[in-house]
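Practice problem 4.
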């Protein structure tokens, strides 16, 4: 039986005879629904009945290889981190939430003590405990216990599925903040996968007047166009085509690329972004496919192209929910596949997400 926390502090998670169950990653492409003992409810915690969980690219990496970048799964772990649910129990000191509230959960718990946390950069905390990032158990479970300050009440017109989508959307919002996107920012996005698409939606909500998406996949580009991209450009994976493709991007963006987002993170995508961005512009590295890259930094530096990176997000949930409430962002079209929380569906859902293709966001309804 898996455990979420120390056994002496754990509670069964049984409610009215029901045992709390979770999707445990036991090995490469091996997921099993098994009992999950929850940690005790602290005074500032809430117990949440999880109702919607999305599959992220990092979940797929863990599923396929038992690792994502430097995060290695060394023991059984509950997977998942994009989630929303309903409050079932509140700690003795919780004042902002009540039983029955629908909430979106921010998945990372920082230490709140280090210099990064004190400076507001809590997403960079070295002691971060993040749902479904080893060794911390995730949220693809019937119930989880989580700090109340990381649970955000959903507006009445925002669904639980949309609440779960706040997590990937937060990546796009944090990227747009880091790149200072505004009403005069023409945007280039490398990659039209889920993160490229939420970055596009966020950039539009921040006022970007023109957004062009670049990808190697015609199907993904068609989806980007349907979701509001002003232009789409298909490119190859061949580095020898880079100069020609940069010229095409620049001719499409007649007034210049002010900000480029690399939502992939390969040598070629980053090189394209650096070369296509105008003098004095900015490149934001969002995707981290390669741990090391060889890119043309010197020409970019000579044009004073700034390079910024992001890691996850910080302080984004309130803005996400406001964008969803107001209709400024609609994430519903991104949810392309839905599954129940059964052993068969858990396996099929992860295989579907791993295949890619027309699967943008795969969502569990619990």
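Answer key:
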């Amino acid at each position: 039986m898996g455990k979420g926390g120390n056994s002496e502090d754990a509670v069964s998670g049984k409610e009215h005879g029901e045992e709390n169950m979770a999707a445990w990653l036991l090995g490469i492409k091996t997921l099993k629904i098994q009992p999950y003992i929850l940690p005790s409810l602290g005074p500032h915690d809430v117990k949440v009945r999880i109702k919607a969980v999305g599959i992220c690219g990092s979940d797929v990496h863990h599923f396929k290889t038992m690792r994502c970048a430097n995060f290695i799964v060394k023991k059984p772990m509950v997977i998942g981190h994009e989630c929303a649910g309903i409050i079932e129990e509140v700690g003795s000191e919780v004042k902002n939430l009540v039983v029955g509230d629908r909430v979106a959960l921010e998945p990372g718990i920082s230490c709140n003590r280090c210099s990064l946390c004190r400076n507001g950069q809590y997403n960079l905390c070295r002691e971060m405990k993040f749902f479904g990032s080893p060794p911390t158990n995730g949220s693809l479970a019937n119930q989880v216990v989580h700090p109340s300050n990381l649970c955000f009440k959903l507006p009445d017109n925002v669904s639980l599925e949309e609440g779960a989508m706040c997590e990937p959307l937060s990546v796009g919002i944090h990227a747009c903040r880091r790149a200072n996107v505004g009403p005069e920012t023409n945007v280039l996005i490398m990659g039209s996968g889920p993160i490229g698409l939420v970055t596009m939606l966020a950039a539009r909500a921040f006022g970007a007047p023109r957004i062009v998406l670049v990808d190697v996949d015609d199907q993904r580009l068609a989806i980007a166009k349907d979701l509001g991209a002003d232009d789409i450009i298909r490119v190859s994976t061949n580095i020898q085509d880079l100069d020609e493709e940069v010229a095409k991007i620049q001719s499409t963006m007649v007034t210049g690329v002010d900000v480029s987002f690399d939502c992939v993170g390969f040598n070629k995508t980053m090189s394209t972004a650096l070369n296509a961005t105008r003098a004095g512009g900015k490149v934001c590295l969002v995707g981290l496919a390669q741990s090391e890259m060889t890119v043309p930094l010197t020409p970019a530096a000579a044009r004073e192209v700034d390079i910024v990176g992001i890691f996850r997000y910080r302080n984004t949930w309130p803005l996400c929910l406001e964008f969803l409430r107001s209709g400024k962002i609609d994430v519903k079209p991104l949810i392309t596949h839905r599954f129940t929380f059964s052993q068969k569906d858990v396996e099929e859902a992860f295989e579907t997400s791993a295949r890619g293709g027309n699967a943008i966001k795969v969502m569990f309804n619990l």
